[in-house]
Write the structure tokens for this entry.
Amino acid sequence: MIRRLVRSLDSRLGLARFVRSAMNHVFPDHWSFMLGEIALYSFVILVITGTFLAMFYNGSSDHVIYHGAYGPLNGVRVSAAFQSILHITFDVRGGLLVRQMHHWAALIFVAAIVTHMARIFFTAAFRRPREINWLIGVTLLLLAIVNGFAGYSIGGDLLSGVGLRVGYSIMLSVPVIGEWLTFLLLGGRVPTSVTVPRLYALHIFVIPAAIAALIALHVSIIWRQMHTNYPGPHRTDRSIVGSRLWPSYAAKSIGLFCLLFAAVAALGGLVQINPLWVYGPYDPTSILPGSQPDWYLGWVEGAMRLFPGLNIRQGFLVPDVFFPAVLLPAFTFGLLYLYPFFDKLIYYDRTGRNRNVLRLPYQQPFNTAFGCAAFVFFLVLLFAGGDDVIAVVMNSRVVDIRTALRILALIAPPLTFAAVYLLCRRARRRNETPPPPPVPESPAVPIEVTREPK
Amino acid sequence: MSDGRERENRPDGHHRTGAGEVKSLFRLAFAFVWETGRAVASALVRGLSGHDHSPPASAAFEAGGRDADRNLAPVRETAAHRRRGVLLVVCALAVAIAAGVGFLFAYWMQGDNPLLGGCLALFLGGIGCSLVLYARWLMLRREAIEPREELPSSEPERAAFAEDFSASVGEIHRRGLLITVALAFTGLVAAIVVSLFRSLGKPPGPELFTYVWKSGQRLMTSEGAAVSVQALQPGSTMIVFPEGSIGDEQAQTVLIRVKEQLLQLPAGRSRWAPMGYVAYSRVCTHAGCPVGMFEATRDLLMCPCHQSTFDVLRGAVPTAGPAARALPQLPLYADADGILRAATGFTEPPGPGFWGMPS
């Protein structure tokens, strides 16, 4: 029966050739190649859980009086969006689980993209012929961050309301076009009646569609170019070593998907995240102490806290938030986009050949040192994003913590760069024993001449 | 995993008693699934590589192909190894089935969130583990080496493409006209799309440039009561709004009473603080958060979002943190009945800065 079905499909679609080559496609066996898969599977989980949430969520900022299962907010004026989230949380069976899984999966999604990108960066996998896929990957990271922000900004709770106001201030600070940009996209001074519906449309349709399309392109290009290999026996620019897609790679990859889904379910079931009912509905005169964005925007938050209060005021005004919250991210992503081309200037390769064997971090000291320095810089910013919490934990003043972090943000990256660069150079000297001196086939100088004349 | 291995190796065979029947049941169930799966898989393979129209193999597969793969673990492919693999897979599967049934039970009995999440995690984790164990123990571990296809096209292919393309261009007459059509279409579509953005909202409006308070307006509490000069003791603070816009975000103002002799307001503001009452916009000039904290001992207003601090005594100039501009001040006076009123609007539009902000 199955045989007949397969035959009838093949006679209509001619699948045998394609499926045979697909199941023989070779994938390298190295754990670091799983990071991209984790990102892909997190996106699948986000789509599944997000579809469930969209069945109940009401993207409206109209005000309603809450009467529902959660007692402490009974009779409080909340937005319709907030009310629908409380409904998902307290009334829909399994709703809280799916909502928390969605949020956790979002955090894992961005984390997987970032670690995947770090693997690509530190092994120089972005080099020819894979520059295009690097550009797509950077765009995916940007879209993931924007979609994460849009997602946690539509709750109608106090935390997201404060986040939206900060986002509004950042958008407004852009020179020349900031005012128009903000008023056209957000509908005016937030929160307006169109802010939440627009962010919701972006969050569930526009950006996910773009992400899905770019993932399809990303994976197609990987399929066409095939994976890279770590250096090792038989691994050359002209061959690939690993295991075939069918059956063992497929089994392991589907197993990974299930395990990731399991981890997300465990987090969603057991670890509370973004409890909106604890924050309460948005109230323009209230503020939560210790408010922070999700981790992937923590570096922007930290930069906003560390950057000294500087304006440029010459009739026009370039406000203080512009520098850390617009210029720094623009510079960061600009550098990420341009890095493969920048890399060509440092490690100039005049052969123009396609590279399929990865470099190890120590083999390219500048890239590795630069990557580590950038990592340390963003880590300091991430910590700075919670400087008030650190001050409470360390029982010291915020001002002192901020001063220390300002110094660290300036000093730690260059020190890291120098240390990593030197370590890589030393490792390279040790590991790459110099080739034996060339033995001249015919001595350049006749031996007789060197003899002492008698 | 190691536990299972040890039990299997124990010579006295104690492990067989008790658990033996359950195990044989699992084996039976597993054998059923396994045989069915194998039948499906082999039918698939046979169907796809049927002898009457086997696909022409590509050059790459001629060179290598499945038969050329290197077996990585030939020693482990024994019957005992496979038995152990079956045991591990079945254990994981048993956990998965138990947890899956548990999830269904918890769901229909309105179980709480940790129970649902835990069962779902165990179910999916069990399935995932059994698949991974399957791949590790019950599938041949072989290393494939494939030649890569050269990505750049060969010169003859490129030449053939160039030839075909120029031939196809030759079939078009009046090529300039076609280019004009394409350019006109692209340009106008772009202009129309960009123009449609104008429908998204209003131009940057008066709400950006408003000084909020009007001359003579009374200060009101959030409950709607007028604020008199007796409202506060020195060192205390309250939120006030203009009469008629209570609760408005942009209009929120912090009223603080300080000791009058300590005030060092900027020049020209000496009459703005009757009896030590000073009022500032409560919207931070940095990123628009409410400046919600007041430190009475040092007379500092602090924004909890990014920790900007403003000196209340000196016209709310920023003293630390990322804010660059002072909080706009509201000139106050007390009328004949001792009610606090605004003399004019704020000194500058409140809230975060922007390019065209009036100074």
About this structure: The longest helix of chain B spans residues 19-48. The radius of gyration of chain B is 40 Å. Helices of chain B lie at 2-9, 19-48, 59-63, 79-108, 113-137, 155-170, 175-196, 206-209. The mean pLDDT of chain B is 84.
